[in-house]
Design a protein that fits this description.
By secondary structure, the chain is α/β, with parallel strands linked by helices. The protein is 39% helix and 12% strand.
Amino acid sequence: MKKVVLLRHGESTWNKENRFTGWTDVDLNSTGIEEAHEAAKLMMDADLCFGMAFTSYLKRAIKTLNVVLEDMDLLYIPVEKSWRLNEKHYGMLQGLNKAETVEKYGEEQVLIWRRSYDVAPNEIPENDERNTRKDPKYADIDPKLVPLTESLKNCVERAVPYWNDHIVPALKKHDQIIVTAHGNSLRGIIKYLKNISDSEIASLNLPTAMPYVFEFDDNMNLINDYFLGDPDDLAKRMEAVANQGKAK
């Protein structure tokens, strides 16, 4: 049996402030670091032991993975980083408080921006200081591939090919792999793996640092998926994610 753990990063400084983060490279806060330690314990209790890891270019995901691997005594395993696992780019919304944005534009519009499959927020202008095409970490990437905004559909279009071209081949070599990334890049992969419809994916809310295990047979057919941890805590944290896009 093959196992992949999909792990959203721990709470970041902007998660705490309820701000749209996207490709903004914010750090974990103290809660996020503690969540990463708790995730590692859950995975050790489940007898997981990874042969390889994948993460994004963003420090909140990288640092979550580093905490997990250190706690599990797996710092030696190979780690592959890719911008294709980055969070969805929120365009002009990046940095804005979600509840305040709801008060300005209405809950329905913000829900569309946050959770619709194919509607993206307005682009960041090329001359905006938030334009990640100017960020040196993306210097080796074709600027046309670095987004100025994205929908979940755009996330799927970059994350799913990466899953098939990089993660699946690695899983054929290593029986257990961890992917530490972001709410929307992981939602895109989950949509693909579970064949979730464009409309139903809106209701999937991934909490920070709750390990989500996917089990496959040797032919990479999905046979089971489940979260590790207390079900009541999981439900509470999922609800908290859903409520981020509501007015105060």
